[in-house]
Design brief:
single chain; 354 residues; alpha/beta; 3 domains; 3-stranded antiparallel β-sheet
Amino acid sequence: MTGLETIKTAEALLEAGLIEAEALETLRTVTQRYALAITPSIAGLIDSRDPQDPIARQFVPDPAELVHLPEERDDPIGDDAHSPVHGIVHRYPDRVLLKAVHVCPVYCRFCFRREMVGPQGNGMMSPAELDAAFGYINANPAIWEVILTGGDPLVLSPRRLSDLMTRLRDIPHVKIVRFHTRVPVVDPDRIDAALIDALKASGKTTYVALHANHSRELSEAARQASARLIDAGIAMVSQTVLLKGVNDDPAVLAELMRAFVETRIKPYYLHHPDLAPGTSHFRLTIEEGQRIVSALRGHVSGLCQPTYVLDIPGGHGKAAIGRNAAEKTRDGCYSVSDFNGNDHIYPPPATGSD
């Protein structure tokens, strides 16, 4: 059974029937270390009878989170190395991240910013910090796109979001605004007319990147919330993390990508899991990921193909890490693999001569 309140403690997990009593003490330790929040919408998707439930695996704490490996990092993708002012990450020339808030409606157990988000995290940017961030954006005309992330920017009230968007409206070189969020999935009723108006208040071309990792997350309510955004003229793309025990199977991943496309959301990035502390139980090898992604090619519509990427630790940016289907041969041609795994020479040999 689940209630109408967001689950925020190990005791509430037990009361909701999402954990066994013998796990309570250990999970108290986990939740003291890493934030916990499970909305009623997500709790309602969890099959508590299935010990391998892919929704529970993403949101219910696990004792494995207390295992920290030497290669894991508090800042696994190197945000701090590219932060000229508080709340801004300027890793690529034409775009910046604006991390206005470090609070989320849910906390993923594999979060790469888990050391920064939550009630004990970096909180919300102060007015002075926001002034400095917008001053930086305004002073750098190469910035074409501003990506609001965090945290989840859609936890902000419509009034606060509208204030931020109004400030971006007055910066002419910013043409694109993008929001990274889980809200349409984890709190779909929040996507109402007031919030949509706030998202569009900049007057810029606006995108919403929706994070979901399993097709069951795209409930009817989530699809309707996404439809409200899209029907209002906001384009949507997807972000997914390739996670052991959640979607590390070609059929499961294909079902998710098709569900995105059916919802008018274009699959965008499939992330290799980052080296965040206490997340080794979610990680698979790059070779395993490449096999899964390669299995989609040719068997699932091109509309359903995400780009498999790795955020290189240390702040060096994303790299596409899917298998290369074309390899140069010694004679200057290419060996190209088709979706069945057969190799072909390009350009093909001449069939005859004069």
